[in-house]
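Tutorial, part two.
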Amino acid sequence: MRPICLITGASAGIGATTARMAAPDFDLVLTYRADRDGARKVAGDAEARGARVEVLQVDVADPEAIDVLFEAIADRFGRLDALVNNAGIVDVATTVTGMDHARLRRMFDVNVIGAFLVAGKAAAMMQAGGRGGAIVNISSIAAKIASPNQYVDYAASKAAIDTLTKGMAVELGPDNIRVNAVRPGIIETEIHAKGGQPNRAAELGPSAPLGRAGTPDEVAEAILFLLSDKASFITGETLDVGGGR
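Running the prediction step on this input gives:
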């Protein structure tokens, strides 16, 4: 019986790459907020690699949409074995004095509250199944360095993910549900363009000790390791994939 893995924010970037790399070993539930074509392309690639795939439009800032997502997982697959809690947003670079309530509300609705709700519902489904499971939350090196003059709100939202990870790991250990996180650094994905800095990876990558930006494949490998039985005695940890940053 192939395990079932939910990957949120799977239409591009790290989520999409993780879905493609997971496909030989998992059946997949993939979510997207707006990029339907991107999500469908990822699904097609995953199906070509042997996965059964369900694609759903979900805005994780909407609690009702999250409820519908987990109802669909229950109807389609009847269980959940793994979660890659990846959906997240960034905004244009600014200082804290330039951040208004609307920006902060959206940032924390998606990156914190949405991530908490998805992780909680995934854990409840794993508990009900009685087989255990694995959750990987996607944090960021920004949680450590705070991203001053750029994205302090994003960094703070990811620091919350680090705390979520540790707390859930302790709560869920007795149920054989492992909870870990990955902190990507500067990675070559489309998220930089969404934040108004399409060349950010090329510009900042050389400042890392390894002298370059990372690739989505390198992050996905870390995620899939933490989901795998090779990490069977690892929980509550946050793995940096940041080239030494």
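Residues 4-241 form a domain with the Rossmann fold fold (CATH 3.40.50.720). In part three we will examine how such features are distributed along the chain.
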